[in-house]
Design a protein that fits this description.
The complex is a heterodimer of chains A (684) and B (705).
Chain A (H helix, E strand, L loop, with lengths): L1 E3 L3 E2 L12 E6 L5 E6 L3 E6 L4 E7 L6 E7 L6 E5 L3 E5 L10 E4 L4 E5 L7 E4 L4 E3 H6 L14 E10 L2 E10 L2 E8 L4 E8 L8 E8 L3 E8 L4 E7 L9 E9 L12 E4 L4 E6 L8 E6 L4 E7 L8 E4 L2 E6 L2 E9 L4 H4 L20 H4 L28 H12 L2 H13 L6 H18 L6 H8 L12 H7 L3 H10 L5 H13 L2 H6 L8 H13 L14 H10 L16 H12 L4 H8 L7 H11 L3 H6 L3 H42 L2 E8 L1
Helix pairs in contact in A: 4-5, 4-6, 7-9, 9-14, 10-14, 10-15
Chain B lengths: L1 H10 L9 E8 L9 E7 L4 E6 L4 E5 L5 E6 L7 E7 L3 E6 L3 E6 L4 E7 L5 E6 L5 E6 L4 E6 L4 E6 L9 E4 L5 E5 L3 E6 L5 E6 L3 E2 L2 E2 L5 E6 L4 E6 L3 E6 L4 E7 L5 E6 L5 E6 L4 E8 L7 E9 L8 E4 L3 E5 L5 E5 L14 E3 L7 E4 L4 E5 L3 E6 L12 E2 L6 E7 L8 E4 L5 E5 L4 E9 L2 E7 L9 E6 L5 E6 L4 E7 L2 E8 L11 E4 L5 E5 L5 E5 L4 E6 L6 E6 L5 E6 L4 E5 L4 E2 L1 H9 L3 H4 L7 E4 L6 E5 L4 E5 L22 H7 L3 E4 L5 E8 L2 E6 L2 H7 L12
Parallel strand pairs in B: 1-58
Antiparallel strand pairs in B: 2-3, 3-4, 4-5, 6-7, 7-8, 8-9, 10-11, 11-12, 12-13, 14-15, 15-16, 16-17, 18-19, 20-21, 21-22, 22-23, 24-25, 25-26, 26-27, 28-29, 29-30, 30-31, 32-33, 33-34, 34-36, 37-38, 38-39, 39-40, 41-42, 42-43, 43-44, 45-46, 46-47, 47-48, 49-50, 50-51, 51-52, 53-54, 54-55, 55-56, ...
The chains are: A alpha+beta (684), B mainly beta (705).
Chain lengths: 684, 705
Amino acid sequence: MAALEEEFTLSTVPLGAGPNGLLGVEQSDKTDQFLVTHGGRTVILYKVSDQKPLGSWSVKQGQIITCPAVCNFQTGEFIVVHDNKVLRIWNTENVNLDKVFKATLSAEIYRIHSIQGTEPLVLFKEGAVRGLEALLAEPQQKIETVVSDDEVIKWTKVFMVFRHPVLIFITEKHGNHFAYIQTFSSRTLSKYTLFHGQEEKSVIQNFTASVDRKFISLMSLSSDGCVYETLIPIHPRDPDENQRVVRSLLLKTVVAGNAPSGVALTVLDQDHVAVLGPPLPASKECLSIWNTKFQTLQTSRELPQGTSGQLWYFGENLFMLHGKFLTVIPYKCEVSSLAGALGKLKHSQDPGTHTVPHFVNWETSRGYGFGSQNSEQSKRILRRRKIEVNVPPPAFEQLLSTIKKDSEKDIEVELCKFLAVKRTPDFHAIVGDIVLELLGRHTTEPSFYPRNSLMQLIQTHVLSYSLCPGLMEAALEKTDVQMLQLCLQQFPDIPESITCACLKIFLSISDDSLQETEINMESVSDCSDPVQEKMDEQTEILQNGFNADEQNCDSCDRKLNQKPQDAAEETTSCPVVPKRAALLNAILHSAYSEMFLLPHLKDIPAQHVTIMDWICLLLDANFTVVVMIPEAKRLLLSLYKFVKSQICICSELNKIEVSFRELQKLNQEKNNRELYSIEVLELF
Amino acid sequence: MRLCSVFCHSSFPEYFSSGMGEFKVHRVRFFNYVPSGIRCVAYNNQSNRLAVSRTDGTVEIYNLSANYFQEKFFPGHESRATEALCWAKGQRLFSGGLNGEIIEYDLQALNIKYAMDAFGGPIWSMAVSPCGSQLLVGCEDGSVKLFQITPDKIQFERNFDRQKSRILSLSWHPSGTHIAAGSIDYISVFDVKSGSAVHKMLVDRQYMGVSKRKCIIWGVAFLSDGTVISVDSAGKVQFWDSATGTLVKNHLIANADVQSIAVSDQEDSFVVGTAEGTVFHFQLVSVTSNSSEKQWVRTKPFQHHTHDVRAVAHSPTALISGGTDTHLVIRPLMEKVEVKNYDAALRKITFPHRRLISCSKKRHLLLFQFAHHLELWRLGSTVATGKNGDTLPLSKDADHLLHLKTKGPENIICSCISPCGSWIAYSTTSRFFLYRLNYEHDNISLQRVSKMPAFLRSALQILFSEDSTKLFVASNQGSLHIIRLLEGSFKHLHTFQPQSGTVESMCLLAVSPDGNWLAASGTSAGVHVYNIKHLKLHCTVPAYNFPVTALAIAPSTNNLVIAHSDQQVFEYSIPDKQYTEWSRTIQKQGFHYLWLQRDTPITHISFHPKRPMHILLHDAYMFCIIDKSLPLPNDKTLLYNPLPPTNESDVIRRRTAHAFKISKIYKPLLFMDLLDERTLVAVERPLDDIIAQLPPPIKKKKFGT
């Protein structure tokens, strides 16, 4: 559930009103530290949690900052542009901006983008994009013109897609909007015309965008107060042709139409957007959080002193002007997953930090019949205690340094050594760290994929999804179904979106490549062997449904009878090969909540629909829908019978328990009569 | 009956020359003994000892270093229900109870040093300051009283601000500046200097949405970082910030009361016990691998009890719990145990490590000792014979002859019946009783011997000589008295005074069948052997690291057999003043590992009148005859074979035979002795019979909703 927390003011100095007051807020390379660029001459580095500035830099009188300062995540330096063409690069040790590195370029800069994982990208007002390094090597290089005359850049953003940056910018010319997508992996620039659809008259006031694997979802807030969504493919089929994309209504009237002052929109996550503006024509300005999936207002906060139509979202904080002060409102949205509902939450990770989210020691709660009540995680952590830091064993240090530089073989050897050592109470956290370290190297060095080591670590049974976020993503990327299967079996807290991504891969992987992979067939062992043999001979003939849990009674009967299947039972036959069945079983056995899984299931492509019909039946993803399907009638009936019999069993068991207790009492009375006896004993 | 026994005897040929032979066993299960429930446990880290108090006021001291042996006990008292127990500096033990008295125990002389009224009504809680020199008691009237512990007494210092209801739990902050006191519905934090309440933390009465009448704070623990942990009757474990008086964290762990809490010295783990019999372990675990931030996480539940866990303790390596079901459970923490040896096993102590039963061999009588009465039973008889395992038809059933109730509120410390069956003696803390029994056909008459001398009171152990003419009494001052018994009267013969400088009490006595030697043992020093004829100390068996659990002197050879709590058995020749050859051999070779791993001590040793090579001994779970003539078993040998040998030639049988002949048929075995050459008596106390006499436990549904 999305929630806004108590707001606080960041700057004590009042800012000039309007867009001139504040140029931008950008992340720095340290968690919790943000660069705030004031319109005019000043850049201030704030530590948000402490609400205090760590440093402040100004340009000389007469100069004017023209685009927000950013942090180069690769070097930790800050970059700012003044007077449109002059770059200044400095770090926290510098005091005077006048004395730091300076580069004057040949064209005017619109914006510098800097995000984790790539060098800063410079977008020029004419639409050209350059990497910072190339630009600094030759500052006076000629910058080409991309956009036409009178075409003005209105908005821009950069994303990382498959470890490569993708830059989008929106231009306007005579009331028409164009989107340009610059990809750096293939060095292509594609142009799209944003087609307004029916709402021709409205003026677009603000943009935001998020990225999926193949699409950029561009959202725009129009003057009619509605939010529209436009899907722009990242990799166009024909990059040279000017293509049109149509926008569709996403949210209706989130702000009052034709709002007098600025409105703003920003994407928070895949289901939530934050909107700044007056909800009704006469009302005061508000910050509202909307759920786009359910079209509902989640929460809102009134800003009685007005705002400026500027909104930034980083980490867990929303930044905006409230009156004349820069205000921060922390925003939290717990991931909608069964794991989340149970309190095993994956906390959003700030880049560059090395935190392990709240954990559950699954090992200790297993094997005792007491459930997992020890997952009672309070969001409030006990007061910080000055206890000495838990020093990880030296084998751990050794292993970490091995992971940083040595070969996969060496890592495996080192890992074996490490795992042989006695387990400490924080073993799960250490294993999580090792996985993160391995993944970290995998991200920087894509050829490095220490599969064996990862598999070994997963099999320690102490990992959870929250302990090593990114592991399943990496496996998804590599289509490593074996590892995915293992993760599904081991992790108790996989978000439904990942479960669904696994399902997609399991359904789309070809039978040939499945044959080559090693998959744990335990879950289909009861039918795999004979089926496997038959499959090899003639793949047309299919045998029993593999899910013994689901069709318990039926399959038992069938096994007893050993009769070939007749046509009437076709619906329950298994349309997939056993290996795929084993993978699908892993999904079915994982912890998911159908309510949250259902939206993701919609994304499953149509070619798998036949399988989906069948799997839907098993998933029971949407009970009300299933109830309506005539095919489900039998299943429901048997389910009903099963539950009823289970209740009967429970009540009978209780009766038996009572009877046993009575018997025990009688037995004791009988024993009482045998209080004394004389017996013969022979010792050998 | 004697006749029949002789008849059976003569009907068996003596072919069991190498074997142990066949016995008729009187299997007795009518000893209706129910241990008292455990009320408090207190662990002392310095001495590694555990004090346990029971609902009848008995206090027991267990030595955790000596195989959990119950080395001392203080008898209970009807009006002295102990509610709190704690150790102070210098290993001094204090208790407080419902009669409002603070009691200090003398661990050397095994008596009560003094009792002092705290003048606050019943005492519910007690805590010794971290430095060990101040004692705090919480009373019925809502007062918290501070006492100064002086070298020989305690002295009242002052009252803290009085609260409106009884103080059920107390805990000191490790710095000694503040205390937390649990009452009804709230917890108070006091400043020790001013004695005033700094904070009052109200506890939610709600229990699963239902408002209970009261919420009783059964336990509190004050940690050095200022956190107060409380356990209460609503099933909650709560963490409070004592600086602000606010609730930090709440764990609902039970549907019933959480009654006890104990924190480890390192404050990295604690244990709580619930009324459902469950014990939960909480540990402070780091949230991330390389940060100092840690969180309390409930890690392990243990269900070793059926009833309320009234008391818990936390030793560096184990969780200790006890409650209404009378068991003392010691659960080692596996991660703290370096070597996975037998010390890492769970211990469940149910029965006292001393004898409650004595036997008159001549008249086939058994004397049972209870807290406030004695029972005398005569065993039945049979004329039938049978083979191994047969139950023989009774020609005469066992008879309950006598029910002897004590006068006064004190528990019986020890009792004994003479071998001839004509004398019964017992002692409480303040009085010694001697009775003469007369048997006329089926009638039995009892006559108390009056005017017992004052020095006899408070005996720790009583023993009659084999011919029933002498009575030996070990008093709690370390002295041993010898009394000559005459028909209906007595004469004080001699008193052996304790060795100069020691006040250690003698707990175990043994006399030689010829009446010449008396062996006596305390809890730590060696065994002293006295010459009764010359009335002087004959020798002292060298002290051994582990306490003596049983001793006996063999007929004819006068070898003293001593069993220790580490399961070692020594044989010491009294005439030669040295260990026997057999004892040296077995020490050289070592006992079988399974023998050493037994977890109950040997409580009785006896001998066969016709087979000098045999030693009979038993613990709670086995009975063993050691045949010294046979080779000793080594660790590869099968120590205990429950199945009779079948189809094995005599040669194989003889080759595989070893000295230890063990039977595990009778258990839990409280007493076993030889009545005559072919008759044994075994007194069992099945656990089910004890459970049947306890109040029903909280019922938990096992199936369904």
